[in-house]
User: Which sequence fits this backbone?
């Protein structure tokens, strides 16, 4: 029997830009978060977008605070106060708003010889951008069917998002849901997210993405999948020692799901990379 374990993260969720960096590129905050050309100019040639964890929530109607702070875009206020309201939210629309502009920026960077991709956020991160998560957890206990309905809606939207990112030239699709970790949700709800959301999402992505595209999970998600016995670890031997980020690129076309380390651990050198094989 596998054991549920959490991964200790040392990185902040926010990755906004400083006023100084924007100004050095002839841009200003927060305007350069809004349009593809400015997002691309601010990003550089090798980047994981977006700059913040509220992009998907904003697409669903969240009220977002935009200013010149280096914290980047973030929730301004709750628009959902009870779980029933999750049923009233629209589906994720990859052709709308800042999400569409982000995908355009990815395509623009890649068409100009860069290496850009996206990091999608999971359901608890998205709910955090819409509501007080504790209120939703209380409602989840009484109405699990509503949460499952919301999960289904998000799975469809995030699958569209991943496919659009792939069409824009992304080789690796990153996925994270740090607030949905074991130490925050506890075993019961972390297990439900893993079984009712994460696994179905990965199965949908595995079916629809071409084989040369890799899905890279936040290790908090990877550890939960393995701990819930929904995936098992395997090893891929690399041709030489290389930085972890390069190893992930080298794994494209050879494996489907990575998540041994945080994607931000790009200075670590590896000769073997662990990957996950789903247990359907």
Assistant:
């Amino acid at each position: 029997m596998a054991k549920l374990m959490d991964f200790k993260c040392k990185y902040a969720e926010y990755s906004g830009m400083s006023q100084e960096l924007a100004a050095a590129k002839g841009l200003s905050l927060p305007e350069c978060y809004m349009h593809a050309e400015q997002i691309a100019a601010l990003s550089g040639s090798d980047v994981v977008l977006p700059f913040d964890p509220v992009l998907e929530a904003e697409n669903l109607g969240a009220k977002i605070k935009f200013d010149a702070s280096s914290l980047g875009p973030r929730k301004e206020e709750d628009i959902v106060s009870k779980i029933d309201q999750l049923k009233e939210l629209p589906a994720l629309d990859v052709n709308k708003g800042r999400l569409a502009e982000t995908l355009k920026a990815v395509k623009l960077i890649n068409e100009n010889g860069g290496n850009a991709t996206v990091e999608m956020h999971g359901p608890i991160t998205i709910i955090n951008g819409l509501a007080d998560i504790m209120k939703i957890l209380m409602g989840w206990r009484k109405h699990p069917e509503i949460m499952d309905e919301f999960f289904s809606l998000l799975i469809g939207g995030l699958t569209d998002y991943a496919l659009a990112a792939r069409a824009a030239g992304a080789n690796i699709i990153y996925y994270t849901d740090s607030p949905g970790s074991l130490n925050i949700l506890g075993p019961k709800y972390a297990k439900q997210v893993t079984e009712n959301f994460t696994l179905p999402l990965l199965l949908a992505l595995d079916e629809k993405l071409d084989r040369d595209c890799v899905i890279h999970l936040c290790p908090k998600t990877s550890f939960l999948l393995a701990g819930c016995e929904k995936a098992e670890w395997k090893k891929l031997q690399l041709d030489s020692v290389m930085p972890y980020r390069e190893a992930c690129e080298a794994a494209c076309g050879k494996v489907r799901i990575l998540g041994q380390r945080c994607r931000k651990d790009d200075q670590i050198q590896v000769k073997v990379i662990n990957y996950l094989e789903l247990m359907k």
In short: Strands lie at 46-49, 63-65, 74-77, 115-121, 172-176, 214-217, 231-243, 257-258, 269-278. The first strand starts at residue 46 and ends at 49.
